[in-house]
TrEMBL record, chain B:
Gene3D superfamilies: Fumarate reductase/succinate dehydrogenase, transmembrane subunit (1.20.1300.10)
CC per GO annotation: membrane
InterPro entries: Fumarate_red_C (IPR003510), SQR/QFR_C/D (IPR034804)
Protein name: Fumarate reductase subunit C
From TrEMBL, chain C:
Pfam family, one: Fumarate_red_D
Entry protein name: Fumarate reductase subunit D
Entry GO CC: membrane
InterPro entries: Fumarate_red_D (IPR003418), SQR/QFR_C/D (IPR034804)
Gene Ontology process terms (BP): fumarate metabolic process
UniProt keyword annotation of Signal present: no
Keyword Membrane: yes
Length: 250, 127, 114
């Protein structure tokens, strides 16, 4: 006698309905299945109209983020067996406009990623010509920012952040962590250029250190810490600029 | 294309445990301000006459004072613990390639807290 | 350039938070239990009186009280905004930081007068 598992899934079909609704599906329960397996089963066997994003199914691409029982999760890493009630509610990631079913608009996030200038910036005249080889970096220097390179842009942190849910002008955890990845990179000299976005009212100063972003991050990037550290360095900057108006840090 | 935006209610913080405890943590600041006001009264009386100070000490034995102190202590303790636990996130220190463990930094902060508390009680209550 | 002036407010918040976390719990035990119930023997009025009149102590007390006021102001301001009062955020900032400034002035006044 095989067990079954119920998924109550958020549906929204803008050409047909003005309001979203929930639809329940019953799938077989398998010990080794993740929520994504169940959703794929629904799409293949029960209801082909269900729309959602997924790709690698192994927790590295960041595509399959959804709310499972109100918690942001990568559905490829959330096991059915971890829900003993054998019933879950699946919704699109919180904080983003929903296009259809479980698919949300990521444009705001994509814009913010580009706004923080996520590439190595060098000061005027300090770019090394190609013939001189690469910028050298020691393992100790790498250790300073390596954690912030691990972000897979899954946006679970934005879904977990109540500040972003209340105000989508907040730059947000992943974008700020990405900025820190470059700010703390010894080869980069562009911290000042990123400050306009990072040290703005919509940047780090809107964060109240709820900390849920770091709790839900599947890659242990710890964006909350990145933001608080940016508050410290931005405060030091502010005082430096007050004391010596023409002196600008890195 | 019409997108759907789920409305966010003002009681969002009641919807999950982490959010709830976050707002509790933020509300501890009310008790911090409240105790500041109390300290001002205490200092004013202590700098006044013996009678004024004695009256204050007497009122501190009342049930109201005890209840207020207990409630404030609970909230301010929660503030202190959450504050100290978050310190390692802000103070990230590296020794070469290795990052100094969070527990060590938190431990140092808690130790300082103990030392400061002992110094305060020694200063006020005497050796 | 939308660079904010929040850093100062955040610094005051942090300093006040660290001070209140380090100092207030012990003070609460002292004023709540130890002094009223004389659990540390007799702590004379003279001792406390002379202590608070000492200029160095007054300076320390000023910071121990003023900075936590600003800690409250900054934290409470954001909390009120987050629970739905964003439309009146300017008024909230005024009341919170105004309150902290008032508390600071009152503290200075009291410490000066004793």
């Amino acid at each position: 006698m095989s067990e079954s598992f119920e998924l109550e899934i958020f549906r929204y079909c803008p050409e047909q309905d003005t309001e979203p609704f929930f639809k329940s599906y019953e799938v077989p329960f398998r010990e080794d299945w993740v929520v994504l397996d169940a959703i794929n089963y629904i799409k293949d066997e029960i209801d082909g109209t269900l729309s959602y994003r997924w790709s690698c199914r192994m927790g590295v691409c960041g595509s399959c983020g959804m709310m499972v029982n109100g918690e942001p999760k990568l559905t490829c890493s959330a096991f059915l067996k971890d829900y003993p009630s054998r019933k879950i509610r699946v919704e699109p990631l919180q904080g983003f406009p929903v296009e259809r079913d479980l698919i949300f608009e990521m444009d705001d996030f994509m814009n913010k990623l580009t706004e923080v200038k996520p590439y190595l910036l060098r000061k005027e005249g300090e770019e090394k010509p190609l013939e001189e080889g690469e910028y050298l970096q020691s393992p100790a220097e790498l250790a300073h920012y390596k954690q912030y390179t691990l972000c897979i842009n899954c946006m679970l942190c934005y879904a977990a952040c109540p500040i972003y849910a209340l105000d989508s002008s907040f730059v947000g955890p992943a974008a700020i962590a990405l900025a820190q990845r470059y700010n703390l990179d010894s080869r980069d000299q562009g911290r000042n250029q990123r400050q306009e976005v990072i040290a703005s009212h919509e940047g780090i100063w809107e964060c109240t250190f709820v900390g849920e972003c770091s709790v839900v991050c599947p890659k242990d990037v710890d964006p909350a810490a990145a933001i608080q550290r940016a508050k410290v360095s931005s405060t030091l900057d502010w005082f430096k600029e007050m004391m010596i108006p023409r002196s600008k840090g890195k | 294309m019409t997108t759907y935006r789920k409305p966010v209610s003002n009681t969002w913080w009641l919807e999950s445990k982490p959010y709830f405890f976050f707002v509790i943590r933020e509300f501890t600041s009310l008790f911090v301000a409240g105790y500041c006001l109390f300290l001002l009264v205490f200092i004013a009386k202590a700098g006044d006459s013996q009678e004024a100070y004695a009256t204050l000490i007497l009122s501190l034995k009342s049930p109201i004072s005890m209840v207020l102190h207990l409630i404030s202590f609970t909230f301010i303790l929660y503030h202190a613990i959450t504050w100290f636990n978050l310190t390692p996130k802000i103070m990230v220190l590296h020794l070469g390639e290795e990052r100094i463990p969070n527990a060590l930094i938190a431990g140092a902060v808690y130790l300082s807290w103990g030392v400061v508390s002992l110094i305060i009680s020694w200063l006020i209550l005497g050796g | 350039m939308s660079k904010s002036n929040e850093p100062v407010l955040w610094l005051l918040f942090s300093a006040g938070g660290m001070i209140s976390a380090m100092v207030f719990p012990m003070l609460l035990i002292i004023t709540g239990v130890i002094l009223p119930f004389e659990l540390a023997g007799e702590v004379t009025f003279e001792r406390i009186h002379n202590a608070v009149k000492n200029p160095v102590v007054k300076l320390v007390l000023f910071f121990v009280i003023a900075l936590p006021f600003f800690h409250w102001a900054h934290r409470f301001r954001f909390t009120l905004i987050d629970i739905g009062l964003k439309p009146i955020s300017f008024l909230i900032s005024l009341l919170c930081y105004g309150g902290a400034i008032t508390g600071t002035i009152v503290a200075a006044f009291i410490l000066w007068r004793i």
